[in-house]
From TrEMBL:
It holds the Pfam family RINT1_TIP1. Residues 184-197 have a biased composition (Low complexity). Residues 202-211 have a biased composition (Polar residues). Gene3D superfamilies: Dsl1p vesicle tethering complex, Tip20p subunit, domain D (1.20.58.670). GO terms for cellular component: Dsl1/NZR complex. PROSITE patterns: RINT1_TIP20 (PS51386). This is Rab3 GTPase-activating protein catalytic subunit. GO terms for biological process: endoplasmic reticulum to Golgi vesicle-mediated transport; regulation of ER to Golgi vesicle-mediated transport; retrograde vesicle-mediated transport, Golgi to endoplasmic reticulum. Residues 184-237 are annotated as: Disordered.
Length: 762
């Protein structure tokens, strides 16, 4: 025990020594008045900040001192940089007059931009060192410094805008649209009421702004290597180098951009078919040093910013501002669909020409670039959705144009001709295109008409336009307003054709059957194209909202595919019904009572099918052959199978269960049924499988009298199962007819009439 006490006292002494050493280290560098000086005989401390008493608390306190020290040093450096930047910006206010010397101001701007880049980097450092364990007062001080840095950034942007606006205003840029309106009025009075106005070009002199850009801007943009993609702005809020240029439409970096931008701003149809040209002159003038701002900015920041991307962003923002303030309000007021379509065309063309500067050579309008959504964000087409009137005007024009294209495609002379004729140049328009080619229809998986191929091509074009809209409500609104209306218009045309053929009673006739068959094939082709869309068409696969908003809606492609599929099945069944009804009309004499009595007579019969049935069989064979030339494999199979089911029921109900049969009559009826099945033998190797009731009825009518009598006795003695069958029928492989149906057929045999119990007379 004494030894343990000695070891414990030694450990406590070592702990006290270590604590004293840590206190001395923590207090190193503090003024003498702040040191913890213990007095003799006293357990408390008289002065200085309180320090932890235990070793663990002291180590924890030391662990938090180092991050706080680093954070404080970074914060003090940020405050110094912000003060230096604010001092530099105070020298830049006020903005010099356009006719004054601005070289000193531009030098200050260049230095301020360099200082701001340093401020942004230091702000990121401060934000990264922030911790929740830091004192609240220190965190509040950091928030204030970051706010000062953000305010300095906004002030710098404002100064750039004010300077460039003053220089552009001195050059009368942008031109006033009132000049165009006045020119429109004067030209209209000079040319006459019916002539388009002739607007002369409006020259706008940029003097050395264009010269300077050619000398400097074009040079460094061409010398820079093309990156794989533009860098993203940092979280610290680095100011875009070209953000101050709100209206740099005059800054043409290359001939391609110059032409694209002028074509976009021109919009030849946007001023009532007048031409608006901007003639950029290159003569020196007194307004010369206007491009010094660009020259002063470009050189020091070329290593920090991606200049092609920044210039493309500036051009895009400038065009958007022109659209908001000038063009879109005028388009909405003029309410001309052609102008809206021309606007969309030029906007997409403008965005395509900006693609190389933005580091994306493949624009999203192509199938390969359909997924380049980062490129589309913030585009010119997005400006249209900012105002409901603008969006409705453009979408209405696009929808009307799409519907007009659908109607033109449907009403064209070759609209319902097989698209294979258009796809194969070797046979297109040649004399060899005839029955030999058309006979391949029922063997083909798809047999779309030309109008269906035109509709699919239109949907691809609309999907290309949708690629230039950002994902979300804008693209959803476009999909519901334009492609959906185009497909509805196509289905409406199909329904009109089907209803007209139905009203004339010619769904299966030679006049309307080819046209209705083409509608069915078009619907099936659209189902396949929408269920398995190409990557470009997937752009239109937006979820359509339900009006009540209580459940999620189906996607546009899936919903339209279901609608086309429903239309295809409906008209296949209607056509099969028309075939059955026409066959019933052709064989009306065969099913009359006067002819049914012939089945009960005895004596020899002429070979082949009944004379009253032959005309209907000939018509049926010709009708099926005609439909096979205009329906694809799936649609034709559905039509003839449905027709076979209807014909099977027709002869079973009107002949097999109504006439009385002698043995010769039963043989004649079996021959008639075989002739009916032979009309379908070209389309199926086992036509009897589709006439099961007739086949089993003929088997019962042709049985030997003794076997038939025994079967009748068995059917009366054996109960039927749940399906209505019984063991006696199963033995004879009669599976489709129930017990009651079999008795009904057997009762039509003359030789079995004595065995059939007759109902008691009243």
């Amino acid at each position: 025990m004494q030894e343990n006490d000695k070891q414990l006292k030694a450990a406590q002494q070592r702990e006290a020594t270590s604590l004293s050493q840590l206190r001395n280290f923590a207090c190193r560098g503090l003024p003498p008045a702040d040191l913890l000086i213990p007095e003799a005989g006293l357990d408390h401390q008289q002065a200085g900040p309180p320090l932890p008493e235990t070793l663990a608390q002291c180590i924890e306190e030391l662990g938090s001192l180092q991050p706080a020290k680093e954070f404080t040093e970074a914060l003090m450096l940020l405050r110094g940089l912000v003060k230096s930047l604010e001092k530099r910006m105070r020298k830049m206010d006020p903005i010099p007059e356009p006719d004054g010397e601005g070289q000193a101001w531009l030098e200050n701007l260049s230095v301020a931009l360099q200082a701001h880049a340093t401020v942004g980097s230091q702000a990121e450092t401060v934000a990264g060192l922030a911790q929740a364990s830091l004192p609240v007062e220190l965190q509040q001080e950091a928030d204030g410094s970051l706010s000062h840095a953000s305010f300095a950034r906004d002030t710098l942007i404002t100064l750039q805008r004010r300077f460039i606006h003053s220089r552009l205003a001195a050059l009368s840029w942008p031109p006033s649209l009132s000049q165009l309106e006045a020119s429109d009025a004067s030209s209209a009075s000079a040319n006459g009421a019916g002539d388009p106005p002739a607007v002369s070009p409006t020259p706008i002199q940029f003097s050395s702004m264009t010269n300077g850009l050619k000398a400097h801007g074009q040079g460094f943009l061409q010398d820079l290597p093309s990156p794989n993609g533009p860098p993203r702005p940092s979280a610290g809020g680095m100011v875009p180098a070209w953000r101050g240029f709100d209206a740099p439409q005059d800054l043409k970096v290359s001939d391609e951009l110059k032409k694209a931008l002028l074509a976009f701003i021109g919009m030849q149809r946007c001023v009532q078919q007048a031409s608006f040209e901007i003639a950029v002159t290159e003569e020196n003038s007194q307004d010369g040093p206007m491009l010094w701002a660009v020259e002063a900015l470009a050189e020091p920041i070329a290593g920090t910013y991606h200049l092609p991307f920044e210039l493309a962003r500036a051009l895009r923002c400038s065009v958007q501002e022109v659209l908001r303030t000038s063009w879109l309000p005028r388009l909405a007021a003029m309410a001309d669909a052609n102008l809206w379509l021309h606007f969309a065309e030029k906007a997409v063309e403008f965005e395509r020409n900006l693609a190389p500067l933005r580091g994306l050579p493949i624009p999203p309008g192509s199938a390969e670039g359909a997924a380049a959504q980062v490129w589309v964000h913030g585009g010119c087409m997005e400006v249209v959705s900012e105002e409901e009137q603008w969006a409705q005007g453009w979408l209405g024009a696009e929808a009307a144009e799409a519907v007009a294209q659908v109607e033109a495609a449907v009403d064209s002379p070759s609209a319902w001709s097989p698209a294979e004729q258009a796809w194969d140049p070797a046979v297109s328009g040649s004399a060899t295109w005839g029955e030999s080619k058309l006979e391949e229809a029922w063997e083909s998986e798809f047999w779309p008409p030309c109008c269906a191929d035109s509709l699919l091509q239109l949907l691809r074009e609309l999907a290309g336009k949708a690629c230039w809209l950002p994902e979300g409500p804008d693209r959803q609104q476009f999909a519901a307003a334009v492609p959906l209306e185009a497909m509805k218009a196509f289905r409406t045309k199909m329904q009109i054709i089907g209803r007209t053929a139905d009203e004339f009673g010619d769904l299966a006739g030679p006049v309307w059957a080819p046209r209705v068959s083409a509608c069915i094939c078009a619907a099936r082709y659209m189902v396949q194209s929408l269920r398995e869309p190409s990557p470009l068409l997937l752009t239109l696969d937006e979820e359509l909202p339900i009006p009540n908003g209580k459940r999620r809606g189906r996607s546009l492609l899936d919903g339209e595919a279901s609608s086309f599929e429903s239309a295809s099945r409906r008209w296949c069944l209607r056509m099969a019904k028309a075939v059955a009804e026409k066959f019933a009309d052709e064989t009306a004499r065969y099913r009359r009572r006067s002819h049914l009595d012939n089945f009960a007579s005895t004596g020899p019969r002429p070979g082949g099918p009944s004379r009253e049935l032959s005309g209907g069989l000939d018509w049926l064979a010709g009708c099926l052959s005609m439909l096979s030339q205009h329906l694809d494999s799936v649609a034709f199979r559905e039509v003839w199978r449905s027709a076979a089911i209807a014909l099977n029921r027709l002869l079973y109900n009107d002949v097999a269960t109504e006439a009385h049969f002698s043995s010769e009559g039963a043989e004649q009826f079996a021959g008639d049924c075989q002739a009916l099945q032979a009309a379908f033998r070209r389309w199926t190797p086992r036509p009897g499988a589709h006439f099961r009731e007739l086949t089993e009825a003929c088997a019962l009518l042709s049985m030997e009298p003794a076997a038939a009598a025994q079967l009748v006795a068995s059917l009366h003695s054996q109960p039927a199962d749940e399906r209505g069958s019984c063991p006696a029928l199963t033995t004879l492989q009669v599976a489709r007819l129930s017990r009651d149906q079999a008795l009904c057929v057997l009762e039509r045999r003359i030789d079995l009439l004595p065995l059939i119990p007759q109902p008691a007379s009243r």
